[in-house]
Amino acid sequence: MTTENTILNPLPVRTWNSLKMNEANYSGEVPALSCAPEITKLPDSMKLTHDEALTGISSAAGELSEHLTGDSVLIESESEASPAVLNYNFDGGKTARLFLKAKENATLPVSVIMTGEGTAVLEIKILAGKGSKVDLSVVQSVGGESDVITDIGCTCEEGASFNLTKLELGGKSEYVAVSVDLAGEHSSFSANAGYRVKTNQSLDMNYVVRHTGRKTESDIFASGILENDSTKIFRGTIDLIKGCAGAKGTENEDILLLGDNQINQTIPLILCNEEDVEGNHGASIGRLDDNIIFYLGSRGISPEAAEDIIAHAKLDAIISHIPDGDVRTLAHSLISDDSDGGEDAKL
């Protein structure tokens, strides 16, 4: 299905229109064809069913949900579990829908690998039950000429935690939306987002965390590389809603520029309607120090190789949070400068 100016990734509170940062406009295709995952690992303690849905989970993707149809996969955990691994191949343009449910005091670690050539749309909705822990890692390595849209939404009940590791390594134009509702007291969310936006590629990210429960905590960290003529925008919102006394929210971004003519926009937004809360935000941006390039050059390392070494080190810190060892190994192989994802990016 072709869309006309679909609004994606809107800011919860708008800023000046002249800045062109309030939302993204998408006029491409939202495929009608569904994509079923290849299940590489599924522990016995997890249950998988089809054609199920989790309703009432919020989204930060804007109008995307209006265009999503088709089958879905639901994975549930009732106890402690080892990691599950799912491979989604989006060849020809496909849409995938995944639902995750961790029951009371359960653990649910899941790694998702996105590959293929063609428009890729992935929706993930999560319900983290009381006292549960959900670990989700998504390695996005779709072919370099594709549109990629990822919409992740989660609700955390009392004492639940949601840990997200998100690695953006593919796609021509990519849109990432993450929405988390910390509804239960003492619930928490942590995000480690890594990206490498290559020449003439664009990345649009929108992270929204709503603190409604008391003594809730969130920590969003984004770190990545922008190469020649690339474009990136990061919207990070921490919403401290009345009644969330004792809540703490932090967001930080660290950006490395390699080459020239990049466009970077970062909006760290903290909304507050409660007195007894803490909100922190920060961002840093810079280029490689000439002294580092000179030092590595004196040891026979070219400037291009030196840049690749530094890029690896920056993303290695993000990859270390992926719970499955095989997926970590795959992610390491994908962050090299000559990797372009697509069909080769799978276990």
Short description:
The chain is 10% helix and 46% strand.
Give the secondary structure arrangement, pairings included.
Blueprint: E1 6-8, E2 24-26, E3 38-41, E4 46-50, E5 73-77, E6 84-89, E7 94-102, E8 107-115, E9 120-128, E10 133-140, E11 147-156, E12 161-168, E13 173-182, E14 188-197, E15 202-211, E16 217-226, E17 231-240, E18 248-257, E19 263-272, E20 278-287, H1 290-297, H2 303-319, H3 325-334
Parallel strand pairs: 5-7, 6-8, 7-9, 8-10, 9-11, 10-12, 11-13, 12-14, 13-15, 14-16, 15-17, 16-18, 17-19, 18-20
Antiparallel strand pairs: 1-2, 3-6, 4-5
Dominant shape: globular
Mean pLDDT: 90
Total beta-strand segments: 20
Separation of the first and last Cα atoms: 31 Å
Helix content: 10-25%
Uncertain stretches of 5 or more adjacent residues: none
Strand content: over 45%
Q: In angstroms, what is the radius of gyration?
A: 19 Å
User: How is the largest sheet built, in terms of strand order?
Assistant: 3-6-8-10-12-14-16-18-20
The largest pleated sheet is described as: 9 strands, mixed
Class derived from helix and strand content = mainly beta
Structure characterization notes:
With 347 residues, this protein is mainly beta. Helices cover 10% and strands 46% of the residues. The protein has 3 helices and 20 strands. The strands form 3 sheets. A 9-stranded mixed sheet has the order 3-6-8-10-12-14-16-18-20, covered by helices on one side. The longest helix is centred in the C-terminal third of the chain and has 17 residues, at 303-319. The relative contact order is 0.13.
